[in-house]
Amino acid sequence: MIFLFKGLILGLAVAAPIGPIGVLCIRRTIANGRTSGIISGLGTATADMFYGCIAAFGVNTISDFLLHIHSYLQIIGGIYLIYLGYHIFISLPAEKSSKARSTNRLEDYTSALILTLTNPMTIVSFSAIFMGLGVGNTTGKYMSARFLVIGVFLGSILWWIILSELVNKFKNRFDQRKLNWINKVSGIIICTFGMYSIISQIK
């Protein structure tokens, strides 16, 4: 069970830095409520768990392939970030029907999942951490690796729940003008992340 606890701490540590997904989660929580933010975080946590599994169980074929196409995935992710950023920048806060909210929940999950999956370098981070913890593709350690990966998922989703709850507590302080301003700033920040992601891969 110690590996479950270690995974929980690692999941929190990996998820906590505020990057494009963090900005997206904050903006969605303010605009659409904490459920939207939590579901976005669930998409990210799912991707973290996927890469954690590859690293923990030593699936070298998949790992090598993803790292080989890393640059292409980063560019695709950058383009998608720019698309999302532009869409957020031009959007206006508005009341949504229950059908629209239901559709957006799926979009919240899949968009966060895809964006996180476009950064396979996460495998390298997990591999280094897992090696340091003595978890590898060897007999007798699969149970430890399993608990570690589950812990990473739980730690990651715990962070997104905490973040969404905190943001949700303050969202009522934002009027229509402030919400429009948040959309503009969030859109610019996310577009900037996207442009950096593309430029950093152009050699």
TrEMBL record:
GO terms for cellular component: plasma membrane. The keyword Protease does not apply. It holds the Pfam family LysE. It comes from the Bacteria. Keywords: Cell membrane, Membrane, Transmembrane, Transmembrane helix. The chain crosses the membrane at residues 6-26, 38-59, 71-92, 112-135, 147-167, 179-199. It is a multi-pass membrane protein. One of its GO terms (molecular function) is amino acid transmembrane transporter activity. It is found in: Cell membrane. This is Threonine/homoserine/homoserine lactone efflux protein. It comes from Pectinatus brassicae.
